[in-house]
Amino acid sequence: MFDKLFQAQQKAQEIKSRLDNISVSAEAEGGKVRVVVTANKEIKEIVISDELFEDGDREQMEDLLLVALNKALTQAENVSQTEMQAATQDMFGGLGGLGNLFNK
């Protein structure tokens, strides 16, 4: 039993490390704002076009930044869930039909 728990902890750490190395990006307003986020939901980069700075519309810039951040975080969450589901299936796949017990 403890061996299975240890293996699960190791697998969780492997997944976290892998998610740190997966990046997703999202844009708003045709690329005027671009955000890069890891699959662990850590913001790595924010790029704002010079055009938005020239317009000087702070409220628009804030809104576009929120849109891009939320899109990127949603993508990161989707990648994270996919990785976790794959790991869970690997761990419980040997249990016959019980591996799908909670997916139905």
Automatic annotation (TrEMBL):
Q: What compartments host this protein?
A: Cytoplasm, Nucleoid
Tagged with keyword Cytoplasm: yes
Family annotation (InterPro entries): YbaB-like_sf, YbaB/EbfC
Keywords assigned: Cytoplasm, DNA-binding
Q: SUPFAM superfamilies, alphabetically? A: YbaB-like
Task: Enumerate the Pfam families for this protein.
Answer: YbaB_DNA_bd
Identify the Gene3D superfamilies for this entry.
Answer: Nucleoid-associated protein YbaB-like domain
Keyword Cytoplasm listed: yes
What this chain does, per the record? Answer: Binds to DNA and alters its conformation. May be involved in regulation of gene expression, nucleoid organization and DNA protection.
**SUBUNIT field:** Homodimer.
Entry's PANTHER family? NUCLEOID-ASSOCIATED PROTEIN YBAB
Q: Which family does it belong to?
A: Belongs to the YbaB/EbfC family.
What is this protein identified as?
A: Nucleoid-associated protein JKG61_14740
